[in-house]
Amino acid sequence: xxxxxxxxxxxxxxxxxxxxxxxxxxxxxxxxxxxxxxxxxxxxxxxxxxxxxxxxxxxxxxxxxxxxxxxxxxxxxxxxxxxxxxxxxxxxxxxxxxxxxxxxxxxxxxxxxxxxxxxxxxxxxxxxxxxxxxxxxxxxxxxxxxxxxxxxxxxxxxxxxxxxxxxxxxxxxxxxxxxxxxxxxxxxxxxxxxxxxxxxxxxxxxxxxxxxxxxxxxxxxxxxxxxxxxxxxxxxxxxxxxxxxxxxxxxxxxxxxxxxxxxxxxxxxxxxxxxxxxxxxxxxxxxxxxxxxxxxxxxxxxxxxxxxxxxxxxxxxxxxxxxxxxxxxxxxxxxxxxxxxxxxxxxxxxxxxxxxxxxxxxxxxxxxxxxxxxxxxxxxxxxxxxxxxxxxxxxxxxxxxxxxxxxxxxxxxxxxxxxxxxxxxxxxxxxxxxxxxxxxxxxxxxxxxxxxxxxxxxxxxxxxxxxxxxxx
Length: 472
Ligand code: PFF
What we know:
Layout: H1 15-26, H2 29-41, H3 45-73, H4 77-87, H5 95-127, H6 136-147, H7 150-170, H8 174-199, H9 204-212, H10 216-220, E1 221-223, E2 229-231, H11 234-246, H12 253-258, H13 267-295, H14 306-317, H15 321-355, H16 359-380, H17 401-428, H18 431-438, H19 444-468
Antiparallel strand pairs: 1-2
4-fluoro-L-phenylalanine binds near residues 25, 29, 339 and 342.
């Protein structure tokens, strides 16, 4: 049955093309910008450990499930969910899972593009030598001044969104396959060069112990305004949410890429490659950033500006810094670009399938929608920087609109989407269908996947959700 279905959008030229594109989707701002700053905000080692556990017991099995659903349905996530639900004898309401994914993708891309715009701006700022021998204070001031300027942010946000629309309009194949093939290794190489720099700072050991020595007390407890120590599971929710975000799971991005995957590729093998590469990039990024933080007496919990306030210090001091810095921000922009494409692909595929639009029309429509949502983030950094819409709730008290968008998508929508994907693949699809698609026989590998998605993953996600909102 599944063998007959074909995607109207074409197929990857090979299994490698898929691995590259999916790695391009996974590796992005999440690894280099977000992972270090949330690790810094949540106390380091214990947070990293929980994130790694989430990657293994939640991320990997859900990625396999998403690819298998995509390849079996061979359509946009909305239509794939609908078709597979009918095939399994269930209600077509499952298509709403696809709809939630499209919405999550739009919301994520809206702020992702603003941050990617900041990275793009840094290409030029580093290139002209602005950071040569700059002090930490000088760099922080430059960064804050930039954030204060809505027009500048808007300009770079627009440039990045146009870049995204251009590639999506041309179709995900040609461009992405070629770009990712050399950009990902180049990004990794430059991270290794930076790692060399970090190793030579006086604080390399301190940086490593911050990242790898777990302190669970610091993770679970914080002191509230009344000076009382309170327990919270919020950091665990953030670590889990990040596992989804960094692997591009829970919203159909990997599902839609899976729908272009040739039938003969091993889903388990490609999943390990993607998850392995993604995790390696994040860990190395952390190992670069924290030594720089400590060597310059900076605050690891300073928030989302962390990489923009630390890496320029390294570029300002190392030989050839302007060159490496420019290259680094170019590569970071590319990494963000290959991720942003996958954020709107589910919507574009659906518009082409159901509304008969051309790819170009669908990309422009989706891009403009995300661009408009992006204004919320642009203004969160300046004219609305003290607007905290949900200040009445303790966890959201000091969260700007940008913070809330990030929290809602990464920590709620993606894990919820992932939970439903796991339930669908493990409980509603027939055992024959999943075994066929995963093509691992009935051996230990298949059984482990099944036990994980049937029990461990849904239970783990539910516990984290319920504990985070204090229900259990
Ligand atoms: N995984 C990307 C990153 O780490 O930057 C972000 C992302 C892309 C999230 C695609 C979700 C998604 F569907």
